[in-house]
Amino acid sequence: MTTARDRASVLWAAESFVRRFARENPGHVDPDQRVHEIAASVTATGTYTHTPEELAYGARVAWRNSARCIGRLYWQNLTVRDLRDVTHPDDIAQECVQHLRLATNSGRIRPVISVFAPDRPDRPAARLLNEQLVRYADDPRSAQHARILRELGWKGGEERFEVLPLLVQTRPHSAPEFYELPEDAVLEVPLGHPGHSGFAALGLRWHAVPAVSDMTLEIGGVSYPAAPFNGWYMGTEIGSRNLGDTDRYDLLPAVADLFGLDTRDERTLWRDRALVELNLAVLHSFERAGVTIADHHSESRRFLAHIEREERHGRTVPADWSWIVPPLSGSATAVFHRYYDPPDPSATPAFRHRPTPWAEGRPDACPFSGGVGVR
Ligand code: ARG
Q: CA torsion, points 85, 89, 93, 96, in degrees to nearest 10?
C-alpha cells in the first residue's frame, strides 16, 4: 500500500519530468493531458508506466545529468533497450548477454542501456548484484562478489582475469541465481606495448565494455533498479586506476621493473613513468585490436565542447571536478583548469548508487539471509 505522501511525491516527480520531456521534445505530447493521465494512474496504483519515448528520453537525460561522467557529449546516442516485461532471472541474464553483444559490436562499441522492470509500490523488481556486467574474479574490488559466488557453489575464480558470473536477485533477501557469461559475449584485449616487446609477457588484458550494473535509473518518480548501461572506455580508467591503483591490480612496480626504472627513490618518478607506459600500452592495444577507446586529452576537449553545446541550449552542466579530471597528467588536460556547476543530488532523471548489498559491517544490507553464510 502507498501513503498519500508517497503518491504525492511520485506525482510531483512525474509532473516535472513530463513537462521537461514536453519542453525538450516539442509537438510530441500535450503535457497537461499526460499529467492528468499519470495522476489517475498514481491515485489508483501508486505508480504509472512510461511511454517508450519517455523511457528513452529519461535514460538519456540520466546520462546527461551524471556529474562524474566526462563522456557526456554523446548522451543523445544512447541505445535504449526497453525490456520492462522481462522479469524471469534466466531471461534477465540472457538479455544481459545480448546487451554485451550489441554494445561490443565487434569492437565498435555502442553506448547501450537495457531497462528491466521498475520497482512497484508492492513489489520490488529484480536486481543485478554485480557492480558491472563484466568484472574479474581476481580484481580485489570484486573479492566479496567472488566469495558470495563460491558460497553459492561457483567453482571458478582460480585463474587470472577470470570473468565473474552474473548474479540476479529477484526478491529481497532471497538467494540470487548465478549465470556464467558465454566466452564469445565478452570481448577482451590482450595488452602489449608499442615500444617494449617484453610487455606482453606480463600477461595482462582487459575487457572491452564497461557496463555499470549497480546503479538505479530513476525517472520521474519511477525506479528501475536493473538497468545496466555502458559507454566505451577512456584509457586511464584501465591504465591508471584498474591496473595501477594499489588496492586494485597494483602493477606499477612490475611495469617499472620491466622498464628498468629505479624504484628505490621516489624522485626518479618511477611511478609516474610506469603509469605512462601502462596507459600507452592500453591505448595501443585497444587500437590495435580495433576496439573503441578514448584518450584523456581528446575526451577532455569533447567534454568542454559538450558544456558549450549544452549552454547554447540554455542548460548547465553539473560536474564533479574530482571525477572529471583524468587520473593521469591532470593539468595537461583542459578540464583541469576550471570549475564546474556543482552536482545537484536531487536532479532527475538520474543514475543513483545503491549501497553495495554486502557492504562491510552492514549485515542488514545483506542481499539474502537464508541458506548462505555471507555475514
Ligand atoms: N571506471 C570503470 C571501470 O574501469 C567504468 C565506469 C564507466 N566508464 C565508462 N567509460 N563508461 O571499469
A: 30
List, in sequence order, every residue forming a beta bridge with 190; answer none if it has no partner: 205
Q: Which helix (H) or strand (E) holds 303?
A: helix 296-312
Q: Cβ of 160: how many Cβ atoms within 10 Å? A: 11
Model confidence, pTM:
0.95
Radius of gyration of the CA atoms of the chain, in A: 22
Residues 6+ apart with CB under 8 A from 269: none
Distances (CA, A) of 20 to 118, 166, 305: 21, 35, 23
Kindly give the distance from the C-alpha atom of residue 237 to the centroid of ligand 1, in angstroms, as a whole number: 6
> Does residue 131's CB lie within 6 angstroms of at least one atom of ligand 1?
no
Q: Would residue 61 count as lying in a domain?
A: yes
Structural domain includes residue 267: yes
DSSP element (H, E) containing 242:
none
**Sign of the Cα pseudo-torsion (352, 362, 213, 319, in order):** positive
Q: Which domain holds residue 194?
A: 49-359
Region at 371 (left for phi over 0; alpha for psi -120 to 50; beta for the rest):
left
Evaluate whether 232 touches 105 at the Cβ level (below 8 Å). no
Please say if the pLDDT value at position 278 is more than 80: yes
Closest CA to ligand 1's atom 1: 237
CA distance 233 to 292: 7
User: CB under 8 Å to 130, separation ≥6 — which residues?
Assistant: 145, 164, 166, 167, 213, 214
Residue 366 domain-assigned (yes or no) = no
Domain count, the chain: 1
Q: Is 212 in the pocket of ligand 1 (CB under 6 A)?
A: yes
96 is an active site residue:
no
Confidence of residue 374 (pLDDT cuts 50, 70, 90): very low
Q: Tens digit of pLDDT for each residue in 121-159?
A: 989 999 999 999 999 999 999 999 999 999 999 999 999
Give catalytic status of residue 188 as yes or no: no
Whether 231 lines ligand 1, by a CB cut-off of 6 Å, is: yes
Q: Is 72 a catalytic residue?
A: yes
Q: Is residue 238 part of a domain?
A: yes
